[in-house]
Amino acid sequence: MKVVFFLGLALLSCGAEGACRGLVDNGATVFDVTKYGAVADGEQECAQAFIQAFNAACKSNGAAKVVIPPGTYMSGEVFFQGPCTAPAPITVEVQGTVLAQTDLSEYVNGQWFAIQNIDGLVLEGGGTFNGRGNESWRYNDCGGQVACDSLLPPSLVFNKVNNSLLQGINIVNSKGFHMKICESYNFTAQGLNITAPWDSPNTDGIHISRSDLVTISNTTIRTGDDCISIGEGSTNSCVSIGSLGQRPDEEDVRGILVANCTLSDTTNGVRIKSWHESPNLQASNIVFENIVMDNVRNPIFIDQNYGSKNKPGSSNVKISDIHFKNIRGTTSSNVAVSLNCSDTVPCEGIELVDIDFKYIGKTTAQDVTLTAACENAKATFSGTHNVSPCVV
Q1: For residues 188 and 10, is the Cβ–Cβ distance under 8 A?
Q2: Average predicted confidence (pLDDT) for the chain
Q3: For residues 81 and 147, what is the distance between their CA atoms, to the nearest angstrom?
Q4: Pick the CATH number of 1-7+20-226 from 2.30.30.100, 3.90.180.10, 2.60.120.10, 2.160.20.10
Q5: CB-based contact 249:272 (threshold 8 Å)
Q6: What are the Cα distances from residue 49, in Å, to 34, 44, 154?
Q7: Inter-residue contact 116 to 161 (CB < 8 Å)
Q8: Structure confidence at residue 389 as a pLDDT band (50, 70, 90)
Q9: How far apart are CA 180 and CA 161, in angstroms?
């Protein structure tokens, strides 16, 4: 899968009090991981050297930068733990390539690089995190299940990381999700390159949950699962939303903008999905705008029967105030719009404006009329569109 974001963004991150954290060279003290025992031979374990270098930087009294120089380093599980006494931002500059340990027993806490409880982080440098998932994917025993607790470790996990910037980093072949952003505020990711083979299991590009003001821009993602998944409790985030309602303690999703994107050769385009038999939740004020699709099977898709497999029960996630605007391109399906909503809480306020697709499937194009399929959905079509509206 591939999705490219072209959202404009300044190279500054401003916190709640208005203090901007930029990328200005402020004479930071450099904490070189090789000075703490890291060896760039791709064979010796470097996790403790990374942790020690970060801890020293975090506890310093002045501006600090952790540097992973050019070369190849191997590492098991790593924790970069705040809060830090060093003034924000604390910078981690990855210039080389970091290889993940292939022994899954090394990941006691179920993640590779975990960065948490930091206010003001810059992670940059043009380097690469290689999860070496190709040597571990055979151990994924989910067997295609939509609900599975046996997922492999994600590569980068940001938990309670606020007012921070991640830029110019390559994340490849993660064992599990490539990146997770959890319980974070004002987090910007830009200029990333996230890749894994199309058939790699559960290798979502970026998963966002319980976070506010997350912006992703100028990023290329080609993975074996969702490019970007926006989970429960996310607000004001900037492409699959869900799955919602899998767990009883989930929170509402609102204020989501997905704009100025190109999606190529994907199964699904812009999608909202919720579980059947879910708790009571709301997903509202969501906008998909100015999106180009190239050979996408299901361009516009709401699925409120996710995980049902013909089981009884309905989703209790209320989906409302959803806008699909200026979405165009090519599709291999004659059903360009599918709104499969809950019979318990039908979708309301679904707006489709300027929807324009060309059919490129196996049937002769002139014999195909592009249609919309709507179930339990109140939808309006306006503007210029070549998709036959569904009758509600």
Answers
A1: no
A2: 84
A3: 30
A4: 2.160.20.10
A5: no
A6: 7, 11, 21
A7: yes
A8: confident
A9: 11
**3-state SS of the chain: helix, strand, coil percent to 5?**
5, 50, 45
Residue 17: half-sphere exposure toward Cβ, Cα within 13 Å: 4
Domain boundaries along the sequence of the chain: 1-7+20-226, 231-392
Q: Do domains 1-7+20-226 and 231-392 have the same CATH topology?
A: yes
Pair of tokens at residue 359: 């059919």
Distance, in Å, from the CA atom of 301 to the CA atom of 297, rounded to the nearest integer, reads 10
Q: Which CATH number fits domain 231-392: 3.30.1330.30, 2.160.20.10, 3.20.20.210, 3.90.180.10?
A: 2.160.20.10
- Cα–Cα distance between 376 and 353 in angstroms, integer? 20
pTM over 0.70: yes
- Tell me the two tokens of residue 214: 């997350």
Q: Are 62 and 86 in contact (CB under 8 A)?
A: yes
For 150-189, b where at least 16 C-beta lie within 10 A, e where not — what string?
ebbbbbbbbbbbbbbbbbbbbbbbbbbbbbbbbbbbbbbb
For Cα atoms 294, 295, 300, give the angle at the middle one, nearest 5 degrees: 85
Per-position b or e across 75-114, b if 16+ CB within 10 A of its CB = bbbbbbebebebebbbbbbbebbbbbbeeeeebeeebbbb
Question: How many other CB atoms are found less than 10 A from the CB of residue 231?
Answer: 23
Per residue in 200-213, pLDDT tens?
988 988 988 888 88
Model confidence band, residue 236 (pLDDT cutoffs 50, 70, 90): very low
